[in-house]
C-alpha cells in the first residue's frame, strides 16, 4: 500500500510549486499530488501539513468506560503544526492480522489541527468479543493511517487480553473517543 503521506521535503517542494501556480493563475484552489498520494490538504485557513507519525507524541492510558479501553492522546511535537485526518489510527497489539484494530465508527470525523497543547484522541478497545479467549499483550503499536512504516510502540499499563480489537477515529474531544462495540 502506498503511503498517504509524502516526505517533508516533497511536501515543501509541492507547496512551493502550488504557491507559484496560485500566484500565476490567480486561483484559490490547488491540490498537491505525488503519485496518487495526498501530500497536503487544503484546510479552512490555508495550506497545512498532514500529520505524520513522526510529527506526533503519543500517550496511552487505561479507561474503564464501555467495558474498558485505552485512550490514546496525540499531540504535535514542539514547533510543529499539522492536520490529523479524522480517520482511524493504524493500531495493533502485535503483528498478527487478528490483533489489528478494526473501525468502531462508520464515518470520517473532522480533521484536527494539532499545535502546541491541542490534542487528538482515539479510543482502542482490545476486546470486542464476549468470550474468555484472546492473546495477551503488553504493548500497543500505533501510527497515523498511511504512515505505518513509522509506527511507535507504547507500553500498556498492564497485560491485556486481545480478541478482535476496535478503534475510534481521531477526535478533538476525549469524550467522543469511547469505542462502543456493536
Written account of the structure:
With 182 residues, the protein is mainly beta. 10% of the residues lie in helices and 40% in strands. A hairpin with an 8-residue loop joins strand 12 (135-143) and strand 13. The radius of gyration is 18 Å and the shape is globular.
In short:
With 182 residues, the chain is mainly beta. It has one helix spanning 8-25; strands at residues 33-34, 37-38, 40-43, 46-49, 56-63, 69-76, 82-86, 90-92, 102-103, 109-114, 119-125, 135-143, 152-162, 166-167.
Could you state the order of secondary-structure elements as H and E?
Answer: HEEEEEEEEEEEEEE
The low-confidence parts are 1-46
Instruction: State the strand order across the main sheet.
Output: 5-6-11-14-9
Roughly how much helix do the residues carry, as a percent range? under 10%
Report the C-alpha radius of gyration, rounded.
18 Å
Kindly estimate the percentage of residues that lie in beta strands according to DSSP: 35-45%
How far from one another are the termini? Answer: 29 Å
Mean pLDDT: 78
- Largest sheet geometry: 5 strands, mixed
Please state the structural category.
Answer: mainly beta
Shape: globular
How many DSSP helices?
1
* Number of DSSP E strands: 14
Amino acid at each position: 500500500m502506498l503511503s498517504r503521506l509524502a516526505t517533508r521535503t516533497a511536501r515543501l517542494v509541492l507547496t512551493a510549486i502550488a504557491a507559484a501556480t496560485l500566484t500565476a493563475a490567480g486561483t484559490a484552489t490547488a491540490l498537491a499530488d505525488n503519485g496518487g498520494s495526498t501530500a497536503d490538504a487544503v484546510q479552512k485557513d490555508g495550506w497545512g501539513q498532514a500529520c505524520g507519525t513522526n510529527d506526533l507524541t503519543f500517550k496511552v492510558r487505561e479507561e474503564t468506560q464501555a467495558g474498558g479501553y485505552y485512550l490514546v492522546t496525540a499531540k504535535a511535537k514542539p514547533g510543529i503544526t499539522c492536520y490529523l485526518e479524522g480517520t482511524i489510527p493504524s493500531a495493533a497489539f502485535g503483528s498478527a492480522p487478528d490483533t489489528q484494530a478494526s473501525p468502531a465508527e462508520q464515518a470520517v470525523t473532522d480533521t484536527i489541527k494539532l499545535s502546541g497543547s491541542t490534542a487528538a484522541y482515539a479510543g482502542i478497545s482490545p476486546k470486542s468479543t464476549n468470550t474468555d479467549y484472546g492473546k495477551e499483550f503488553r504493548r500497543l503499536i500505533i501510527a497515523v493511517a498511511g504512515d505505518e512504516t513509522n509506527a511507535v510502540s507504547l507500553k500498556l499499563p498492564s497485560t491485556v487480553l486481545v480478541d478482535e480489537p476496535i478503534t475510534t477515529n481521531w477526535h478533538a474531544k476525549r469524550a467522543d473517543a469511547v469505542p462502543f462495540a456493536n
